[in-house]
Specification:
- The complex is a heterodimer of chains A (about 250) and B (about 240).
- Helix content of chain A is about 55%, strand content about 5%.
- Chain A has eight helices and four strands.
- Chain B starts with a strand and ends with a helix.
- Chain B has ten helices and seven strands.
- Chain B has two domains: about 100 residues, Ubiquitin-like (UB roll), CATH 3.10.20; about 140 residues, Alpha-helical ferredoxin (Fumarate Reductase Iron-sulfur Protein, Chain B, domain 2, Orthogonal Bundle), CATH 1.10.1060.10.
- Chain B has a five-stranded mixed beta sheet.
- Classes of the chains: A mainly alpha (about 250), B alpha+beta (about 240).
């Protein structure tokens, strides 16, 4: 194949004719994702301050305490949401760009020549749907935690922490059910809705999931911040740094 | 109105360089207008491919300030005019002359796609069956997505990778309610779908605003996963005898 000779031969990282701030978004992604990973690791290893009154930190839910498990119970759970996010189609885009620079930004030269995409070593990304199933199970427990967060010593009530857990779980539900694999599962795999079994229902479901799937990136970021904020809130209340505000 | 400098690539397959042209600008102008001015007054031999000037024929693809774009759809008021505006041909394809590229590789890829084969039952097609596919029919074959895609642009995998435009076409065929060709082997082994790392540059440049990655590529990846990477589905198919 004849090579193009016209534009600058883009053999070096960062070579581009773009004049906008193409480096800004991936740099911000690196900063935020790195911060999140460090924070969640620290909290998982901490193995403390995850219960405050009726509130349970989402990093430790469901709380699995076994004698045979020597580490923090968070590790028995975190593989599911971590795997779900790691194999998520949106986060894949984000980290392939920001960390692997494949490409760092569109029409910008890449640092390494060798490239296999999602073949070979990265074939495991095809297992995303299994992490989705696990994430749905975890979500079930998070909703259970929200219900428990309305109960103060057997009485119905609501604190600021209840709201924090509720908002977090709503955003996590939005993230989970706007997943591309879920969209495929409910109807994306149908070719002919008018002839498939329950085709009309599946079409409606697919339409509904598609409408939230369009904003999957937004769900991904807001739920990431929410889960960090929810854990931080529980931790601060649990260690006595702040007091939970009781609303009623 | 002030002049704006256009740095336009002049050359051919052997090489070339950017030449500066001062162009007086007027409200509402697009990049293609500026090039017509250059052709009319400064460089009559400048080669530019265009037809409709309405963002519908897909001929005027180029790289404006480093971004793949249709020249007839890129308004000057959307660009910073204090600095020269660069106009280069698409990087991914061989240059014939100036801004004109040889995009014939794309037509060869197209020929390899297993064609549409209709079911023989004469079934009626409803709107909900074609909702998805209609988006893909908007493609004007400008090949900007092919140009920006790093698998082709940076890694030059033209022999193994069909590229986003053809994933759009494949998705349209695969999701067609009346088509019975099975393209899963082709998708997994010949189209290079696995080389796409869903980084969405194709979606960012598509002038028809086709959600190439979300609506074509990812659903195709999910279909490949159904067929080749989902042991649960295999068990299910064994028990219930379904494909
Ligand atoms: S999403 Fe895939 S096809 Fe589109 S530009 Fe990126 S790598 Fe290429
Ligand atoms: S999918 Fe969009 S960018 Fe690609 S060739 Fe078609 S119209 Fe152009
Ligand atoms: S695609 Fe993001 S969670 Fe599935
Ligand atoms: S001239 Fe037809 S798309 Fe630009």
């Amino acid at each position: 194949m004849e090579k193009t000779v016209a534009p600058a031969a883009m053999v070096k990282f960062g070579t581009t004719q773009r004049k906008d701030a193409w480096w800004a978004a991936p740099t911000a992604t690196v900063a935020v994702l790195t911060l999140f990973v460090i924070y969640s690791m620290v909290r998982a290893f901490e193995n403390n301050y995850y219960i405050a009154g009726p509130y349970l930190s989402p990093f430790y839910s469901p709380l699995l305490l076994f004698d045979w498990w020597p580490l923090s119970p968070a590790f028995l759970i975190l593989w599911a949401p971590a795997g779900f996010r790691f194999t998520c189609y949106y986060y894949r885009k984000a980290y392939y760009r920001a960390y692997a620079a494949h490409p760092f930004a569109c029409a910008v030269g890449e640092p390494h020549r060798d490239y296999q995409g999602e073949t070979k070593l990265f074939l495991f990304q095809n297992l995303h749907r299994f992490f989705l199933y696990a994430a749905v199970v975890v979500l079930f427990f998070l909703w259970h935690d929200v219900i428990k967060a309305f109960s103060f010593g057997g009485h119905f009530g609501m604190g600021f922490g209840t709201l924090v857990l509720l908002v977090n779980t709503v955003l996590l539900s939005g993230y989970t059910f706007s997943c591309h694999s879920f969209r495929h599962f409910v109807g994306g795999n149908v070719d002919c809705f008018s002839c498939a079994k329950a085709g009309r229902v599946r079409f409606k479901l697919w339409k509904g999931v598609s409408s939230i799937n369009e904003h999957h990136m937004l769900w991904a970021w807001t739920s990431l911040f929410a889960v960090m904020a929810a854990d931080l809130y529980v931790r601060l209340v649990a260690c006595g740094a702040i007091h939970d505000l009781r609303i009623f | 109105m002030p002049d704006v400098t256009f740095k336009v690539f002049r050359g051919d397959a052997k090489g070339g360089q950017a030449i500066d042209y001062p162009v007086p600008i007027a409200p509402g102008m697009v990049v293609l207008d500026a090039l017509h001015y250059i052709q009319g007054y400064l460089a009559p031999d400048l080669a530019v491919r265009w037809n409709c000037k309405a963002a519908k024929c897909g001929s005027c693809s180029a790289e404006v300030n480093g971004k793949p774009a249709l020249m007839c759809k890129t308004r000057l008021d959307s660009l910073p005019t204090g600095r020269p505006i660069t106009v280069y041909p698409m990087k991914t394809f061989p240059v014939i002359k100036d801004l004109v590229c040889d995009v014939s590789w794309n037509y060869d890829v197209n020929k390899k796609i297993p064609p549409y084969r209709p079911a023989k039952d004469g079934r009626k097609i409803y709107q909900e069956d074609v909702d998805r596919v209609q988006e893909f029919r908007k493609c004007i074959e400008c090949f900007l997505c092919q140009d920006v895609c790093h698998v082709l642009r940076e890694h030059e995998k033209k022999a193994e990778f069909a590229g986003p435009r053809f994933f759009v076409r494949l998705a349209g065929l695969e999701m067609h309610p009346n088509d019975i060709t099975d393209r899963s082997e082709f998708l997994k082994n010949s189209s290079g779908l696995g080389l796409c790392n869903i980084t969405k540059c194709c979606t960012e440049v598509c002038p028809e605003e086709i959600h190439i990655t979300d609506n074509a590529i990812i659903p195709l990846k999910e279909r490949v996963a159904d067929r080749f990477f989902d042991p649960l589905r295999w068990v299910f198919a064994k028990i219930f005898g379904r494909k």
